[in-house]
Input
Amino acid sequence: MQWGIVIGAALGALVGEGVALFVLESLQWTQFFDCLLLNLFIIVLYCLPGLGLGILLASFINHLKPHILIREEREPPLLIALWVFVALNVYAHLLSPLSSVGVPYERNGFVESFYGMLFWTAAKVILVGLIATAAAWLTSIGVQLGWPRRRSPRWRKKHAGWGWIVAVIAGPLLLIVVWVHNLTKLPERLDAPVLKVAGLSSPVLMIGWDGATWDVIDPLLEQGKMPHLKQLIDRGYRAPLQTIKPGLSALIWPEIFTGKPPAQHGLQAFTAYHIPLIGKAFQPPPQRTGLATILRVLARLHLVQARPTSALDRRVATVWELASEAGLKVGIMDGYTTFPAREVKGYLVSSHAYPRLRLAVSGDSPDVLEEAYEVYPPELLVGLEKEYQETASPSPDLLRRLADLNEQDVEQLPELDRMIRGRPLSYLKAVVAHDLFRLRAGRRLWQQYQPDFSFYFLNGVDGLQHYTWRYREPEKSFRVSSAQVKKYGQSIDLYYQWLDEQLAGLVQDASEQVNIVLLSDHGHGPVFLGSKGKSGDHGWGPDGILVLAGPQIRSGASTKNGSPPPHVRDIAPTVLYLLGLPVAEDLSGRILSEAIRPERLQGSPPQRVARYGPPPTLTKPRKSDSVDQEILERLRALGYL
Ligand SMILES: [Zn+2]
Output
């Protein structure tokens, strides 16, 4: 009996290892012990519960109806357990495409991505099946060795050793294979040249409207309701901006900032987990493997520690880090992987500044302004407090412009101090306040510093679309009250119009001298039955928007002259070129030369370097738990976690 258990457990672990290989395939682990421990961790997560459950079930069935499982003689429940485990695995993999569809509505991408997922799942099932078959076959050898009733003791003695060898050697062998496999993916450590401005340098102002989509904008443009955007388009270039799948902002923005895909920039989730004993934070892969859910539960039980992904997880330098290194002045207002704020020439207000201010002002953590990782230079934070207080409660007049509110709604406003599911007004208030803060504080700093490269991150549109699309197109959603439709049916479109007004101010600051890059990381669309209360989503990676305008941009340029459509990976090379910086050959995108004036391209052709250096070193902040929790809370409210 013990023989079979030992061998079966080892083989079960191997199956778990097989699954772990899928989960880990997109990771690059550089530390041997991290890799080893993480593999063990995942084996425990995936394999042991399944195996345990399988043994229980098999024992139960054996007890109830022995003739089902046992034919000639008493077989151990182990073999059956293994197959139950395999069946559970296959079942989980079969379920995964269904759970990840998110039911995109009336989209071409739906069919494509659905079959893509089916194909991916089929491949996984086949591979898991192969591993399981091998495991079962080996188990049956183990069983024969463990229960060789028909065999002589001599035969058993002679062959028993093989089971042990298989069980003991195969596991570590597979771990070594994983390790070597990961080692081959290690980035080369090569020296990068010192970065200098090598060509004509013209300033760039980049504005990110997270989640903005032409589907909403185009009708508004036609009706003349976004006049400032129309002016930009008329004097520049517009295009749909292709993006990556799955369409997750936490992966896409770093690709926009660095010009490298997720496998290279190192971000693949909204949350990173610190697992005990493992030095490096672990990000569950974006494919639905169930690992993110398990880790979330473990975090709730305080067995692992969760934090939002940040610049600590990013392995390559961003446009602003490169520009600053080359001596250009930069100005950053929020965005993914801006925290912890690295030293730059100019200013950097990280994603953690706003929640930090919120905690400080609400008095929940009175000492929070002492730490200096949220902004650079650190003394900025105190000045930002004033702008926070001015914008934290947007005026009822502004909110009335965005929704058809009555007196009762307005009275409730003060108590809606965070996003609350089922209360659209709480979302509206929160997103307006946050964008308003970024615009007001950002413009003050911009005017003060006059940066060569600047960025504004505005994500109100995304949050609003996730939660209020059901009121915009109630027929495409599930059970929507007509009173709410009357109130919030126009909110998304009105918000775009408000953003358009704000755009006027940014364009005015920039004057005629600055090239403007207005873009979104992905588009957005309605979903019939979205997960976590969402009625708008973008998981299938719909095209975002791209508008370029400025002294170096061709007016009336379009994508129709034979060049491939622009992709998020093309933004970094294009911006670096406009800034006069050399463009590294290892970036995956291209300079969008069809949008740039021919005389600029001829007068100052792109300079090349082989690669850029790594991002500047980072001081790890002391624990910033309260701010991390605040950010995770917001991500949860938006249905990302
Ligand atoms: Zn989103």
Q: What stands out?
A: The pocket of zinc ion is lined by residues 211, 249, 462, 466, 538 (CB under 6 Å). The longest strand covers residues 204-209. Confidence is low (pLDDT under 50) at residues 24-32, 91-117.
